[in-house]
Amino acid sequence: MARFKNFYFLVSTSFLVWMLFFDPNDFISQVQLFIKKSQLESQKEYYSDKISEVQKSREELFSKPYLLEKYARENYFMRKPNEDLFIITDK
Question: 56: domain range?
Fold first, then answer.
């Protein structure tokens, strides 16, 4: 029981309780921030990969004229002046 009457023990315990539960930067907030940081880093890696993939396909697309024409025909339904265009959709 002498341990609980010790001033340093009481102050240390109070400080620990305060830092773990009541402080604005408490333990729970730190864990939540760490989890959020991990999620954001994984998203950053995903989007960095996607950006490099898109840049690579863009370089390839603009370097070859026949691929540019194919892309325009497939995605924007462009056609030559004397050409008919038929769009077939799946139901």
Answer: 25-79
